[in-house]
Write a structure and sequence with these properties.
This protein is an alpha/beta fold and 279 residues long. It has a single domain, classed as Phosphoenolpyruvate-binding domains (TIM Barrel, Alpha-Beta Barrel). It is built from eleven helices and nine strands. The strands form two sheets. It has a six-stranded parallel β-sheet with strand order 2-3-4-5-6-7. The longest helix is centred in the C-terminal third of the chain and has 20 residues.
Length: 279
Amino acid sequence: MKTPDTKRAAASFRSMHHGEMLILPNAWDAISARVFEEAGCKAVATTSAGVSWSLGYPDGERVPWVEFLGATRRIARSVSVPLTVDFESGFSATVEELSERVREVIGAGASGINLEDSQDHRTHALLPQESAAQRVATARAAADREGVPLVINARTDSYLQPPGGRPVSFPDVVLRCRAYLEAGADCVYPIGLADIHLIQQLTSELRAPVNIMGRPGAPTLAELRAAGVARVSTATGPALLMAGALMDSIVKLKETGSCEHFASPFTYPRMQQMFASEE
């Protein structure tokens, strides 16, 4: 059984899905997670892509599990708010292995997980609905055995199908989301869905927490709030933004010879203070 603090963090995170819309930024290391907390975020998520890139691997469960788990532990240790982990497909081929992975990620400090319904990270080919729902139920049972109300965000990759693939049927997406909720998910995540009318229809039909990805071109927070969305995550956006900012600053340094492009609202003393509690 996990400690009362683990249980309390997960219960607190679950409650955040009922009430004011949750703004959930996706971190990739301890610095980004700590910055998001410093900005006033009530919880922090990870981005599997950002974590993988930060460890020197491509996205898609290519990072060794032990390294992924270590990164999760370091990020969880760096913040005092709940952390939910982008778990991809669970780094597992069987439900038995998935159960063990859930136990381990809870032990690393996770209050929640994202669990995808595809396992081919190139094509995002969907698992059969029954198999995907069974994996959600397995994750829920594993968390229950640990005594932790882990928040399971069941992601459907229905809208990530490659060009030329079978057109997405909104009723099928609704059926998948309902099946995952019935299997024990707390929230559903139709990643890629950006049509505000369909988003509103989905929240109305499900009457359950829905996660939408915030990205350039997506509906505004006000629109998503009015549509009944429970939480908005940023996915790879912040990691890509940071990579772009680093690239831009180095290019400008080489072009101009000036280090003024490194000016930042963060100073060395401020960063030291942010991590002082870790000493």
